[in-house]
Design brief:
Elements: H1 2-15, H2 17-27, H3 36-42, H4 67-73, H5 76-97, H6 101-131, H7 146-168, E1 172-177, H8 182-198, E2 202-206, E3 219-220, H9 224-227, E4 235-240, E5 245-251, H10 256-268
Parallel strand pairs: 1-2, 2-3
Antiparallel strand pairs: 1-4, 4-5
């Protein structure tokens, strides 16, 4: 009986190399848990937990495409435009890489058609603008016609004067300077002229305790320089004392026109930050 068993095993080893490899693995302690023979050798292991199947990731729902975008993307004009862009790029590239007469002529003819379409578009847009004032750039903002420009400047001048007069009732300018600063000495007469022309009061603050001939009654820094983070001079701020609102107008030497432009821009702001320097307001 023992010889028959040996003969059967030998036959299996020759007939099935995979089975032979499995027997060798078992002898080496490398038996696969899923094999029948390995399972019989391991016995009944009731404490083995079954393998948990991996949870499949939830698929994201397909994003709905708006009907308007779908219809827009399906328009033949858009597809023709994209096709024309590709065609121009390809023909141009061919003409550059191989500049034969035929290739260059083909590109020039195609470019001429594109320029012709753009020119017709520009002419039509201009006629539509002439008939629609709300679409005409010439009627919006600063005009280019000399007569209209003169009227525009007069209107803007009246608007600036009214705005600055209103600001003068409850705003002041704060001028930070140093007595040894040459730029501060250049800025002082500009501020003096601006103050006299528009009536906005000015408070001068000397950072180093020095003085400027054009400015009298300068005050010494009481902490407002640090509170406003004035890093250089000359510096000009616009302040509203009863609200504590203090905003920078600019640093360096500014012209009177620049002062007007910047103060007008600050006046147009619907919301301006309230500075933390209101506690250091010079009395």
């Amino acid at each position: 009986m023992k010889s028959l068993t040996n003969i059967a095993v030998s036959f299996l080893l020759v007939a099935s190399p995979a089975f032979a490899q499995q027997i060798d693995n078992e002898k080496a302690g490398l038996a696969s848990p899923s094999s029948v023979l390995a399972a019989s050798r391991r016995g009944w292991h009731f404490y083995d937990d079954p393998l948990l199947e991996r949870e499949s990731k939830p698929q994201r729902p397909a994003r709905a495409i708006a009907p308007e975008k779908t219809e827009l993307a399906a328009r033949p004009e858009l597809e023709r435009f994209r096709q024309l862009q590709r065609e121009v790029e390809e023909v141009r590239a061919i003409a550059i890489i191989r500049p034969t007469e035929a290739n260059v002529r083909r590109y020039m003819e195609l470019e001429s058609r594109v320029v012709g379409n753009a020119s017709r578009f520009a002419d039509l847009a201009q006629r539509i603008a002439w008939a629609s004032p709300e679409l005409d750039p010439a009627t919006q903002g600063r005009p280019v016609n000399a007569s209209a420009l003169e009227a525009y400047e007069q209107q803007q001048g009246r608007l600036r004067a009214g705005t600055l007069a209103a600001l003068a009732r409850d705003h002041v300018l704060i001028f930070f300077f140093r007595g040894d600063c040459g730029y501060c000495h250049k800025m002082a007469p500009v501020l003096t002229t601006f103050r006299q022309r528009h009536g906005i009061p000015m408070v001068a603050v000397s950072v180093d305790g020095g003085s400027i001939a054009e400015i009298s009654g300068a005050r010494v820094d009481n902490g407002i320089v640090r509170a406003l983070k004035v890093s250089q001079v000359p510096a000009v701020f616009l302040a509203q004392p009863f609200t504590g609102r203090i905003v920078p107008v600019g640093y360096g030497v500014l012209s009177e026109a620049q002062l007007v432009e910047r103060i007008m821009a600050l006046a147009d702001q619907s919301r301006s930050p309230v500075s933390e320097a209101s506690a250091f307001w010079p009395n």
